Structures are given as structure tokens and as C-alpha cells.
Amino acid sequence: MSGRSLSFALAVAAVALSPAGCTLARRQVMLTVTTNIPCPTIDRVSIRIYRGGETAPTFNETFALSGEECSTSGNTGLRQIPLGVGREYRLGVVDGRRSADRVKIEVVGSGQMTVETVVETEFVDDKIYALPVQLAAQCVGFNGCASGFTCRVLATSADASPVCMSVYRVPGTLGRPMAAASIVSDDEADLGD
């Protein structure tokens, strides 16, 4: 049984055994990362997740991108993820602490070039919603955004222009609400104590 399957089975068992009235709703954001930059231009991605105003990340992991064109010696020992042009990577970010803290997520793609994006949001009781972010080629070297803003591309075409947008996203407004039964993530990060 994989770690993800075991984690899910344990969570289901814990809910089933909880006394009536003591069950806490699952609060989750489904981070969905896409890119229009091919390997090996970027061949690894770092994801750092911060709670509230904390300066040390609660989650900090670097992954190698999968695919033959991505195999580089600098990524030895890194876990591979299915991210590339036409392939997305989904990370379920679970609120184990159940506080009113905002969550800040930094996603950095690196290799022959570096591109990064930042997003902030909050968890909502009884809601699991998609939070899409893109590592866009148009944002490489784009440094014109003020504090609290980040580079985004609003269209999917190759000639789409980068724009500065707020890093904050109101829960569920940019991304579709998802039913808990249909959630399929590649990985999960529990932001517990």
C-alpha cells in the first residue's frame, strides 16, 4: 500500500471512529501546478509552504521533473513528479492545524533558467478547491511587480503578455470547487502542528 493510500485509509478510519459531534471537517487546497516551459529548460521544481506570517516553511521540498528529456545528473536523489508542458502536478495541501492562518505557497522552477510564482489563500471548512498556478515562460525575468503582487499570464497562447496580479486569492474564486470524493492528488502535504 502506498504512503498516500495508507494516509487516506488512516484518515477514513479516524473519522469513522470519532465520537459524534467531534468530527472536524477536512480543509484542503488542491495546488495545481502547470508550466509552458519544456525540459530541460526547467528540470526541477521547489515548493515551499508557509503558515501565517511564519518565516520558516512548514513544507519545503524540491522535485525533479519526469520524462527522458528531463534526466540530468543534478537531480539525482530527487523524487520525480509528473510536471511538464501538457502535464500538471497536483499537491493536496491539508490544514492539519485548523487555524485562521493564511497559507503562502512559493513555486520555483529551475534548470537553465529560473521562474517563480507566489500565491496566498485561506482554508475553508468543508471545502476543497483547486488553486491553479503556472510557471510561465513569459514571467522569466519579469521583475516589474510591486510587493504583494506576482507575475501571471491570463491567456494560454504563446504570445500572451505577463501581468502583475495580487498574490492573494479568495478561496474558491480562482479554481473550481471540488467534491471530496473526486479529489485525486499526486501528493499531499499536511500542515499540522
Main features:
5-stranded mixed beta sheet, mainly beta, 12 strands, disordered N terminus, 193 residues, globular
Please characterize this protein's 3D structure.
- The protein has 193 residues and is mainly β.
- Helix content is 8%, strand content 39%.
- β6 (102-111) and β7 form a beta hairpin.
- The radius of gyration is 17 Å and the shape is globular.
Please render the helix and strand layout as text.
Blueprint: H1 3-17, E1 28-35, E2 42-51, E3 59-65, E4 80-81, E5 89-94, E6 102-111, E7 115-122, E8 128-135, E9 149-153, E10 162-166, E11 177-178, E12 187-190
Parallel strand pairs: 1-8, 3-4, 5-12
Antiparallel strand pairs: 1-5, 2-3, 2-6, 6-7, 8-11, 9-10
Distance between the termini: 26 Å
Strand arrangement across the biggest beta sheet: 11-8-1-5-12
Total strand count, please?
12
- Overall 3D shape: globular
Average predicted local confidence, pLDDT: 77
Class derived from helix and strand content: mainly beta
